[in-house]
Design brief:
With 59 residues, the chain is mainly beta. Bound molecules: zinc ion.
Length: 59
């Protein structure tokens, strides 16, 4: 039987991965990071869909 799990992850603050929380654009030093607008943090939310089905070897 196939089984689907949906999970919603509410908005939360995360360290910006583009600038690693520094707020400076790594590709243009001296400019604010465009992903977090120079704050070093971003608001993240996600919807995750996980599908599970039986794994039967040798079939
Ligand atoms: Zn950033």
């Amino acid at each position: 039987m196939e089984h689907t799990v949906r999970k919603h992850i509410e908005e939360h603050l995360c360290i910006c991965r583009r600038c690693n929380g520094t707020g400076v654009d790594p590709e243009h030093p001296g400019s604010p990071c465009p992903q977090c607008d120079g704050s070093g943090r971003v608001v993240v939310s996600s919807d995750v869909v996980t599908n599970c089905r039986p794994y039967v070897p040798n079939k």
